[in-house]
Amino acid sequence: MEYEIKQQGKFKYVSEGEGEPLVLLHGLFGALSNFKDLVDYFKGNYNVVIPILPLFDLGLLDTSVSGLAKHVQKFIDTMGFQKVHLLGNSLGGHVGLVYTLKHEHKVASLTLTGSSGLFENGMGETYPKRGDYDFIRRKTELTFYDPKVASKELVDEVFGIVNNRLKVIKIIALAKSAIRHNLGDELKDIKIPTCLIWGKNDTITPPMVAEEFHSLLLGSELHWIDKCGHAPMMEVPHEFNEILSSFLAKHKL
Q: Does pTM surpass 0.85?
């Protein structure tokens, strides 16, 4: 399905359904389609909201995890949300953590899946190879346990990004910011209910990363999904949605 992209002030976003706000934060190469199954599953009981993060639109000095977290803060305030359930995948999880550390009173629950913030394998030292479609296809396939999940549409989108020089500069800036902005010393300060949903076969943020998050986020719960890579909500949506539904039901506003 195609989602209607709405606009309020400078913010672009998708909003489906009614109820408690469930805000989804995408990663560096996250398309809206990444969350399709999640949106369809939860829009009957929640107001599912996806702010479109300005990965390529911030000034270079603000192209950072903190810069994106400020954007999320202004978006949530502009929307008038008093409290939200926050979910982030990959870089989106990192942004959600930084937002939560500064505005924990606004977050009812936090869900992380394949989140950066402690350690992540990037696209490799040879990334990005502009113009090499097969290279980008292989790198995109590494996101998943089953390479067939990397559809031609998804590979084309990534290929388009890495062939835009300005976008590549922004991607590299954000990736470096994520590596520099390690949250290991700060996570103990997060006290809200936190759910970790991790692919057992994630090669970008491997299982040891989930275990480290689990040990540092006091009272967090950790769920594994077998035969699954870096984007469980795309690759194994049914199991992912059942875990998330059970978690959210325990922490309703």
A: yes
